[in-house]
């Protein structure tokens, strides 16, 4: 029995070690404190910006609709502890509660781990303007905190209204409902601060993200997502090997794919030829050349088409080109007496090929999303199955040894009787 007890204990110990080694993470910032101020813009234009910070990606978009929030807002008081219906994931730590300070900080505290979400307003003398109105919506999937500030001492009575959205999956978002135009850039601050505890007497490290003052205006949406280990992959092959990562060719960097709604946005922004503010109208452009051509031969048609293709490609390289989805017609107000049938057939064949390529891209994106979902479930299912099999094997071995100890005395008695 002593042997079987040790065997069962070893199974338990090995199982615990396996699970701990699978889920324990080390903070790189403890060895490299400079990562706390790390910031890199991957792509941007006049209406959006996508950048990387330590542990988070930041996506900023102007002129966005108000986010849909399930549940009702309730008026609340500041400097009071609030308990959400889920654990808040913040810089790789879980927090059960938070405080909204009177001057605007959202403090997330759990023992020695601390986090601060900044959205506050200062007056002309850079003194904090306290919260005038605070509302909170709390449900199982999302926590919404709406803060309103009024600087009544200012002649224009400046107003700053912002909603902070904290999702159960770790995503954080800011939406600026109303920002008075009279507010100066140094009067508002918005971003994340995290205090990360390090072991081996390395002390605590600070990490910070910031929203530049130029983006803080009415209708701006700021979204933060967990990056995970994606930025550690330095090559295309390593990045593609990670199921939740995507290689950004424009920035030559590996980024995360966490949110399906902005996946296509990241793909378009990371392509070298897809630049900012591209608006392509495919409506007909009427060019009156005032020329009369007696005939268009096949070589002439090919030359004209190749020139058009080269011009289009050159426009795609330039940033701030506007692209929409209609077809450009060029009406030459010319007299064309002959266009050969093979040339027309070749042009018509190009349209199905383009359509097929677009369909292939869409299908590939859908398949990638489904593959990521299945792979994420495998990370949970496989360890559980292995643990279950180990427990079953241990139980069978224990039962076999137990029966062996019970049956052996009877076999010996029967054997002695046969011999005698």
From TrEMBL:
Keyword Transmembrane: yes
Domain of life from the UniProt record: Eukaryota
Keywords: Membrane, Transmembrane, Transmembrane helix
TM region(s), chain numbering: 378-402
Protein name: Egg protein CP391S-like protein
Organism field: Schistosoma mansoni (Blood fluke)
């Amino acid at each position: 029995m002593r042997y079987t007890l040790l065997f069962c204990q070893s199974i338990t110990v090995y199982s615990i070690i396996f699970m701990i080694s699978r889920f324990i993470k080390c903070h790189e910032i403890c060895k490299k404190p400079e990562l706390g101020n790390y910031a890199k813009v991957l792509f941007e234009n006049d209406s959006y910006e996508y950048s990387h910070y330590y542990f988070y990606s930041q996506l900023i978009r102007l002129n966005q609709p108000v986010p849909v929030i399930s549940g009702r807002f309730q008026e609340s008081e500041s400097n009071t502890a609030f308990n959400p219906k889920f654990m808040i994931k913040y810089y790789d730590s879980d927090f059960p509660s938070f405080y909204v300070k009177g001057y605007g900080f959202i403090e997330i505290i759990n023992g020695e781990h601390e986090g601060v979400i900044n959205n506050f307003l200062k007056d002309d003398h850079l003194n904090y303007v306290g919260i005038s109105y605070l509302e909170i919506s709390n449900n199982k999937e999302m926590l919404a905190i709406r803060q309103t500030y009024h600087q009544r001492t200012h002649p224009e009575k400046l107003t700053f209204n912002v909603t902070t959205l904290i999702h159960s999956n770790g995503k954080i978002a800011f939406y600026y409902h109303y920002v008075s135009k009279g507010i100066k850039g140094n009067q508002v601050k918005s971003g994340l601060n995290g205090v990360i505890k390090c072991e081996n007497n390395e002390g605590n490290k600070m990490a910070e993200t910031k929203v530049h003052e130029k983006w803080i205006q009415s209708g701006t949406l700021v979204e933060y997502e967990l990056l995970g280990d994606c930025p550690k992959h330095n090559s295309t092959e390593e990045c593609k090997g990670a199921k939740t990562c995507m290689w950004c060719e424009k920035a030559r960097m590996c980024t995360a794919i966490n949110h399906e709604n902005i996946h296509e946005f990241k793909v378009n922004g990371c392509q070298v030829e897809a630049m900012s503010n591209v608006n392509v109208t495919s409506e007909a452009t009427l060019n009156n050349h005032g020329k009369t051509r007696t005939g268009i031969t096949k070589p002439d048609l090919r030359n004209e088409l190749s020139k058009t293709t080269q011009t289009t490609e050159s426009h795609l390289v330039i940033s701030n080109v506007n692209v929409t989805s209609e077809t450009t017609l060029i009406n030459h107000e010319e007299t064309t007496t002959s266009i050969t049938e093979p040339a027309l057939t070749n042009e018509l064949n190009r349209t199905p090929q383009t359509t097929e390529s677009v369909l292939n891209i869409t299908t590939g994106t859908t398949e990638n999303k489904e593959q990521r979902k299945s792979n994420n479930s495998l990370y949970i299912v496989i360890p559980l199955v292995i643990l279950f099999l180990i427990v079953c094997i241990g139980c069978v071995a224990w039962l076999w040894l137990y029966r062996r100890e019970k049956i052996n005395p009877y076999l010996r008695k029967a054997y002695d009787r046969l011999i005698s």
